[in-house]
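Section 3.1 - Work completed
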Amino acid sequence: MKTDKGTDEPLLPDDLRELWRHESTRSTWLRPGDWYHPAVDALASAVLEQRDPTAAAHGLGHARGYDGVGITEALDDLACLYRSTGRAEPPHTVVVTFCAGWADAQAAGSVPATCLDAESGLPTSDYLSVRLAEAYLVAARTGRPVQDDHGLILVDVATGELHPFLRMARAAAVGAALLETYGHGHPMATLGGGAFAVLVRHDGTGADLRRLREQVERHCDALGLGADVLRTPARIWQRALPDTHDEAVQALTRAGRG
């Protein structure tokens, strides 16, 4: 591997890091002053020494997500590393583990208050739309159909017009059921009109629909909510993601309108 000076001397990790920094800040990175993170060195060393880079890629992805770097900017920066070594694109496994680290950091963080629904305590559909966009972007980068890795869980408990207090109680019960079933690792949202959605991964971490139904019933019973307040039984189903992000957003909009 040649250095940027065109010699045949082998690159050192520090050399690769600076080539990577130059390539990224020239073409991709929005704020050059915050590009460096110690996880950069770990990944550069693994790639340069031809060791398995997946753990280091996960670490850098997590660092980028924790720092609030968008998934597009983070993936473009990762590609700059591999271009600096003369390769066209990062390997598929590196992209997947990098994105997993980024998503883990995002899931552990808090959702901005402006994206939260006051009744259910869940994010709004706008927030879920952003997370869906990230899933489609990752799918495009890896060359895998988005349906291979993700799906939507939809919940509909609508029964008609309700007093605001009862509507709020119903939303709070379903929100608590979703959080207890899936935790904060899966993006979820209220869609309005008694409808809710969760973006799940097909990796064994998505709880089954029976458990979700049991949690919805338990939380509604605890608040004394009966058939006059929510659809019984609640409609809970899984659907495949459509081919495009726009179609996915339209599907959420239709679900919210009943």
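Second construct:
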Amino acid sequence: MRRVMSVAVGAVALLLGGHRTPPPHTEDTSAVSNPDKRQPSRLPAQQLRVRILQSLPHDPRAFTQGLEMANGMLYESTGGYGESAVMAGPAGKTPTVHARLPARLFGEGISVLGPRLWQLTWRDGIAVERDSRTLAERRRVTYTGEGWGLCHQRRDNRLVMSDGSALLTFRDPATFAPTGSLTVTEHGQAVPRLNELECAAPDTVYANIYRTDRIVRIDTSTGMVTGSIDATGLLTPRERPNAGPLNGIAVIPGTDEFLLTGKRWPKMFRVRFISDSAAMEDHADASAKA
């Protein structure tokens, strides 16, 4: 499924409540025309890998839809009809606040904007605005289409939303009204199945590709993929069969580090995205120490 003050990340642990496995997303692989008519780039995206800095516990029953660090808290949303929730707590401790969606709503991505938190729903066409401190519901607004990932670009003060296609929709953070859209391309081709989102630098959004361990770095001024991150191998062969796809990306404020997890993953990882050459050096160092 997919900005704030700096926080210390010595040991981050977030234990979530149990959730049954909900039905999988459907995939919209249709290409959409780029509304701003820019010429697509055919330059290759930078190839990156994941350097694991720390392995952290994560509830293997949680069907993760969104992950974000904000206000000194770690926020996580989970999905499933009758099981959808959002929770938050100090990094490294059990969540202190928790809120569930009504059973008829399937929770999706979240984004925190100071005192406000927006929570998407999958096929219900409803976005829930919450108080980011208490998670109490403030109101609901409707939108057209599916809701998958959500993040906030501070410089432009706009929300960025995915719907499982190659399209990103920009929305007003106060009204949730659409203000524009952009088709994400790589080598001139649309990139479908964009899921969980994380806004980083002013024009940069990270998105995981649904049902893969691939993350793409997107320039939202052009829609072009500028980086492709291979996040395979985070889970062990024993952990992998019982886990779903990667679906949680959270930048750690004030750093170049991220938290990654996935649906029903038993772990969360503090990581840095590095070049292939740096990854090869890591491998060589590990081999030398073995």
